[in-house]
Design goal:
Low-confidence stretches of chain A: 227-238
Strand content of chain B: 5-15%
CATH superfamily of the largest domain in chain B: Homocysteine-binding-like domain
Number of domains of chain A: 1
Strand content of chain A: 15-25%
Number of strands of chain A: 10
CATH architecture of the largest domain in chain B: Alpha-Beta Barrel
CATH class of chain A: Alpha Beta
CATH topology of chain A: NADH Oxidase
Number of helices of chain A: 9
Shape of chain A: globular
Radius of gyration of chain A: 18 Å
Low-confidence stretches of chain B: 576-593
Distance between the termini of chain A: 47 Å
Oligomer: heterodimer
Order of helices and strands of chain A: EHHEEEEHEHHEHHEEEHH
Helix content of chain A: 25-40%
CATH architecture of chain A: 3-Layer(aba) Sandwich
CATH class of the largest domain in chain B: Alpha Beta
Strand order of the largest sheet of chain A: 1-2-6-10-7
Mean pLDDT of chain A: 88
Chain lengths: 238, 809
């Protein structure tokens, strides 16, 4: 059975530093006062536009080798996913979205104010990340009590785990009906601020697993997180 | 004789069956498997479910065709599945000796444009296929579990255009009382009653508890039987077992409440079983349902909300109209859709509740443009629209694609007008503005205008259009040419009101030919409101009009605690003094450009209003070109250089670009008023490639290119290769920019590049976007990979320079 959860903004603390990072300000940079006031204006509006929903289900999996992984609803062939899921007996497959409101706001500002559109997209990116993080933490805690250790979430399109699997996630989780999430012919998700992913569950803790950002091969990424502390940084940097 | 299904639901409490998917899963359907295939593989299971529901007391069975559409099945399999589904229901009904068959249609699984990639007409065609196969074997069609207003409209049109069966529609409302794409119940009632469905309501969702609070709104506003088909609560999990959290007892008790609140056709959705229906029948069969009555509310809607025309006058923004506006005409001629969108958003911010949309100019293809503007305006602004055209084809095309129930401007008492407009209002729904004039012109007296109104109403009635869906404009004529004109209009308003007609006025005409027209308009507006005016087409940028509006509402107890008046007075009437502006400027941060002029500084700092005001000031003493070359461009270059050297971050660059845009807007307006046009640089065609629906990057590039004077043709997002090539050929553009966000959309970029190389070999192609790299760009044969917007500008300048040098030689 596919379950749904909805969240309110109160349950999802806003990580200002993260949003600023998506806005193009690395931690070392301090936005000017005019940039800051524009950003603040958009934060309020952006958060108000969100409607947070997650749908998910639990599956038994067989992780034999990189080219032999049975995830219940897909057969996967991926070295990166194998590394992530090694030792797992179950996975949670989930889809999360912050809703169409953010896309509407983006379209509106796209027409009148490119600077605000850019700010809203950064805020939307932070919102969906935070939603996933909170949901993941809840799942990790829930399954910890059943004796499982959760892996960092893993999405199709990461490494060599084909983005083509996006369709299987959407249809298997009945995403359109459950949370209003659809995928287009180019495998893009609508609403755009949405994520599908797997959370591996194993009876022993993962070895040498780091968070997604640090684990990524894309070394020249301008959005790369500097260190773990940034994640918890909720205070204004200036 | 057996009642028809419509007679049945209108005369008594009627029962739908419950969930199908849940029962199929119990019988072995696995998650992810398409349930409709079971019509072919397990017909006996499907038929037994129908039989069980009929035995439990259900009157209407839903066929197992929820997801049977051409996106999920091949044409041949689709036909087999639907026909089998219809047959199984029919056999069950025949065996039971009672019951009706509803052809069940669920959402197609894709989101419509502009946020998804499915065209509205594609959606209509998809649903039409299902209807054509299934409808001949059904008693009615149930469109259910729809969570998007636009898709719902597409499905209803498909049914209406391909069969004569009654249409029932149920939507999914979330915990916030809205569809996932934002529409509230009132908006859906307006839309669906406009489309002439036969019953409407809610299904699926969270469960009956969450539906109950919405029922009073449905019963208050809807004149149709209300359907309630809830889930058996929420899916829960305990000790490895999964279940829905409402049992038959609780479900049926709550359904009793639903009937008392106005539900008349009831059944179940996910998780409900024949037992749920049986228990519900037991508990409700002696409850008398609330009567179905005609509700007299005048509503229009967008894809999020409805606007009601009652006591408080509705403000309709008049600015999207080329009449008398040079800048607007220029925008239309240049196909500058963005300018029109900006006008719309600005009016919403100024307090308009509805936007009039008129794009009629003699030299323009109004049919195509009205449709494009309607769709694109709805992409950025959630106000209901008033489609304003005298061209019936333009009206029909725009009405069809409009997401909601629109206002139609206008019909008049001439037979030709009425027979052109009313069939469209009947088919698509709408609130029609009716001008009280006919073949003999505008009557001189109020009685004469009322007589025209009566005739218009009679004709509308013959088309099946209600009085509440007409709104009469008794026409305001200029008092400078006819001193009694305003009085006749005001008398007409009262007379129309007394006869139960809604009224609307274009207010501004009354002052034509007089100096300081705003003073006259505002007073006339107050008098008209006092005479009961329901809606006014006004300039919402006029402070005088807004003063009259808010003061009137406060005085007439139409503004709770004078809240709106106070907000208006604080925000709009306490204008910022020059001193305040100066302080803001002082407070602004220091930049490297300390020596720049005030305008340069405003642009560097990204201060939009100031950039505009300062430019307006400079225009009184300097040539526009001097301001552009001497101040705006140097300021942009300064920020651009900082960006290239990584001293300035993208948001700052964007804010400067936006500030420069405001300065340029002041210059454009100035040039137009003195009859000049600005010389533009080369044409630059810009598009996000087919399949890609993200356009933030492309929009950034557009703003910067426009700042640097390029003649940008922005084709938008998800643009087919052929369309890009056509635009390049039409303008013989020397430059084209393509953006793609995902690896999955790079092939469509490659295809576009290929087609351009073949058909427009002179055109230089710049590519960019999140996944683009130099390597990719080389591979697909682009001329240039630009990593950001500034690099695109520099490249465009370079290409232009080479071209002009070549010309000189």
């Amino acid at each position: 059975m596919v379950f749904t959860r909805s969240y309110t903004s109160n349950q999802l603390p806003f990580h200002r530093a993260e949003a600023l990072r998506y806005f193009g300000y690395p931690q070392s940079a301090i936005p000017t006062p005019t940039v800051r006031s524009l950003f603040d204006e958009c934060v309020e509006e952006g958060i108000l536009a969100c409607s947070y929903q997650v749908c998910y289900t639990e599956l038994d999996v067989k992780i034999n080798s990189p080219c032999d992984m049975d995830l219940g609803f897909i057969k996967a062939n991926s070295r990166a996913l194998f590394t992530n899921l090694q030792g797992c007996e179950k996975v949670i497959a989930f889809a999360a979205t912050v809703g169409l409101g953010v896309d509407r706001l983006l379209a509106r500002y796209g027409a009148i104010s490119a600077d605000k559109a850019y700010a809203v997209q950064a805020i939307g990116a932070e919102r969906i990340e935070t939603l996933c993080n909170v949901f993941n933490r809840e799942m990790a805690e829930k399954y910890r009590q059943k004796g499982y250790y959760a892996r960092p979430r893993f999405s199709c399109g990461y490494g060599d785990f084909s983005i083509e699997h996006q369709r299987a996630f959407i249809s298997y989780l009945d995403c359109e009906r459950k949370i209003g999430l659809t995928v287009n012919d180019s495998l893009l998700l609508s609403p755009s601020k949405s994520v599908t992913a797997l959370i591996g569950l194993g009876k022993s803790p993962a070895k040498n697993q780091t968070e997604i950002c640090e684990n990524c091969n894309q070394k020249s990424c301008e959005y790369q997180r500097q260190n773990e502390e940034n994640l918890n940084d909720e205070k204004d940097r200036s | 004789m057996k009642k028809t299904v419509l007679e049945k639901i209108n005369s008594e409490l009627t029962y739908f069956d419950g969930g199908m998917g849940t029962l199929l899963q119990q019988a072995g359907l696995s998650l992810g498997e398409l349930p409709e295939r079971w019509n072919l593989t397990h017909p006996e299971v499907v038929k037994q479910i129908h039989t069980d529901y009929l035995a439990a007391g259900a009157d209407i069975v839903k066929t197992n065709t929820f997801g049977a559409n051409a996106l999920k099945f091949s044409d041949s399999e689709l036909e087999e599945i639907i026909l089998a589904g219809m047959r199984l229901a029919k056999e069950a009904v025949e065996k039971a000796g009672r019951g009706y068959i509803a052809l069940d249609i669920g959402p197609c699984g894709k989101l419509l444009k502009p946020y998804g990639d499915l065209e509205f007409e594609q959606a209509v065609a998809l649903f039409a296929k299902t209807v054509k196969i299934g409808a001949p074997h059904a008693d009615c069609v149930l469109i259910e579990t729809m969570n998007d207003a636009y898709e719902t409209k597409a499905a209803v049109l498909a049914v209406k255009e391909n069969c004569n069966l009654p249409v029932f529609v149920t939507n999914v409302y979330g915990a916030d009382g809205k569809l996932m794409t934002g529409a509230d119940p009132k908006a859906m009632i307006a839309l669906l009653e406009g489309l002439r469905v036969d019953a409407l309501g809610l299904n699926c969702s969270l469960g009956i508890e969450q539906m109950l609070p919405l029922l009073p709104t449905f019963y208050q506003y809807s004149s149709l039987p209300i359907i309630v088909n809830p889930n058996a609560g929420l899916p829960k999990e305990e000790d490895g077992k999964t279940y829905y959290d409402a049992d038959e007892e609780r479900f049926s008790t709550l359904m009793q409440e639903a009937v008392k609140a106005g539900a008349r056709v009831i059944g179940g959705c996910c998780g409900t079983t024949p037992k749920f229906i049986e228990k519900t029948v037991q508990k409700t069969k002696n409850v008398a349902p609330m009567p179905v009555t005609n509700k007299n509310y005048t509503l229009i809607s967008s894809y999020t909300h409805a606007v009601e025309f009652s006591q408080k006058t509705v403000l309709i923004g008049e600015r999207i109209n080329p009449t008398g506006k040079k800048r607007f005409k220029q925008a239309l001629r240049e196909n500058d859709v963005n300018y029109v969108l900006q006008e719309g958003i600005r009016q919403q911010d100024s307090g308009a509740a509805v936007l009039d949309v008129n794009v009629g100019l003699p030299e323009i293809d109004e049919v195509a443009l009205l449709q494009e503007i309607t769709v694109r305006l709805q992409g950025v602004c959630n106000l209901p629209l008033q489609l304003d055209t005298t061209n019936p084809t333009a009206l029909e095309n725009a009405l069809r694609l409009y997401n909601g129930k629109a206002m139609i401007n206008s019909v008049n008492g001439k037979a030709e007008s009425m027979h052109a407009v009313f069939p469209l209002a009947k088919k698509y729904g709408g609130l029609t503005v009716a001008l009280t004039l006919d073949e003999n012109g505008i009557p001189d007296t109020a009685e004469g205008r009322l007589a025209v109104a009566q005739r218009i109403y009679q004709c509308a009635k013959s088309y099946g259009i209600d009085k509440k869906d007409l709104i009469f404009d008794p026409l305001a004529m200029s008092v400078s040419s006819d001193p009694g004109a305003a009085l006749v209009t005001l008398q007409s308003l009262k007379l129309l009101q007394n006869n139960g007609f809604r009224t609307v006025l274009g207010v501004s005409n009354v002052s034509f030919g007089l100096p300081k027209r705003e003073a006259v308009n505002a007073t006339f507006f107050s008098l008209a409101m006092q005479s009961g005016l329901n809606a006014a087409i006004v300039n919402v940028d006029s402070t005088e009009m807004l003063k009259a509006y808010h003061a009137f509402n406060a005085l007439c107890n139409l503004d709770e605690n004078c809240g709106e008046y106070i907000r208006f007075a604080t925000e709009k009437l306490t204008a910022e003094s020059p001193q305040v502006l100066e302080n803001t400027a002082k407070k602004a941060e220091n930049t490297s450009m300390e020596g720049g002029s005030p305008l340069q500084q405003a642009i560097v700092k990204g201060l939009k209003e100031q950039a505009k005001t300062l430019t307006e000031g400079l225009l009184t003493e300097q040539e526009p070109l001097k301001i552009i070359d001497g101040q705006i461009i140097p300021a942009l270059d300064e920020v651009g250089k900082g960006f290239e050297e990584k001293r300035v971050f993208l948001p700052q660059l964007l804010m400067s670009a936006e500030a420069a845009k405001w300065a340029f807007e002041a210059i454009k307006t100035h040039l137009l008023s003195s009859g000049q046009t600005q010389k533009k640089r080369s044409v630059f065609v810009l598009a996000t490639v087919k399949g890609d629906i993200h356009d933030i990057g492309k929009n950034i590039v557009r703003v910067l290119l426009e700042n640097y004077g390029f003649d940008v043709v922005d084709l938008g997002k998800d643009v087919a290769p052929e369309k890009v090539v056509q635009a390049v050929l039409d303008k013989r553009a020397p430059l084209v920019g393509l953006s793609a966000l995902m690896t999955t959309t790079v092939p469509s970029m490659a295809e576009t590049v290929q087609l351009l190389k073949e058909q427009a070999p002179w055109c230089k192609i710049v590519v960019g976007g999140a996944v683009m790299t130099q390597e990719y760009a080389d591979k697909i044969g682009a001329d240039k990979y630009a990593k950001d917007a500034m690099e695109t500008v520099r490249y465009a300048e370079g290409v232009e320079k080479t071209l002009s040098e070549r010309k000189e030689k």
